[in-house]
Design brief:
The radius of gyration is 16 Å and the shape is globular. Strand 5 and strand 6 form a beta hairpin. The chain has 7 helices and 7 strands. It has a 7-stranded mixed beta sheet with strand order 3-2-1-4-6-5-7. It has a single domain, classed as Spore Coat Polysaccharide Biosynthesis Protein SpsA, Chain A, CATH 3.90.550. By secondary structure, it is an alpha/beta fold.
Length: 195
């Protein structure tokens, strides 16, 4: 098997941009601080010799001169399709930055499940998913027609678009104040990485 690629989809942290539900609960500056720390910490923690890691960032201008790749235009489905197909010569997984409990062991479990089933999703507790892993064959032809992104139907829609797939562990997305409080309670008050 060729060395797989883990693609991290991230948004450049900026006050008042993104994390709007979290910002309503904790304030814009605190939401920015949390997202910045969560993204940087997750990217650091997911570096692993078993895969190549690529970080694709939005907006595209944030990628200049920083060793990052731009996500490019289009909706989330189009940006994901383009990123996955770019590395489809080997297994590919794509992950966001909202699931602080993602770990190298959990990512590797998704790659192993995709090897057996062709595709594997890691559900998020809000109806979305924290990871999608694909075999090289499935990555080369992936498409996301009809997916209702950022809704409780995102996982079900993406599974229908991708076709037969396995599931790995469900993780929590930290998208609002309640999710943040629940994550801190599960981890005994630990902060979302260092900012």
């Amino acid at each position: 098997m060729s060395r797989p690629t883990l693609i991290v989809f991230a948004r450049a942290p900026a006050i008042g941009v993104g994390k709007t539900r979290l910002a309503r609960d904790v304030g814009r500056v605190e939401a920015w601080r949390l997202y910045r720390g969560m993204s940087a910490g997750l990217i650091r923690s997911l570096r692993d010799p078993r895969w190549r890691m690529v970080v694709r960032v939005s907006p595209d201008r944030a990628a200049r001169g920083r060793g990052l790749q731009p996500q490019g235009g289009g909706d989330l489905g189009e940006r994901l399709r383009r990123a996955i197909r770019a590395y489809g010569r080997a297994p590919v997984a794509v992950i966001g930055t909202d699931a602080p409990e993602a770990s190298p062991a959990r990512v590797w479990a998704a790659f192993r499940a995709a090897r057996a089933a062709g595709a594997a999703f890691g559900p998020a507790d809000d109806g979305g998913f924290w990871i999608l892993a694909l075999s090289a064959r499935r990555a080369r032809r992936v498409a996301f027609a009809g997916v209702r992104w950022s809704t409780a139907r995102a996982l079900a829609d993406a599974e229908a678009a991708v076709g037969a797939s396995a599931r790995v562990e469900t993780l929590a997305d930290v998208d609002d104040g309640a999710a943040l409080a629940a994550w801190r309670a599960r981890t005994r008050g630990r902060r979302l990485y260092r900012s």
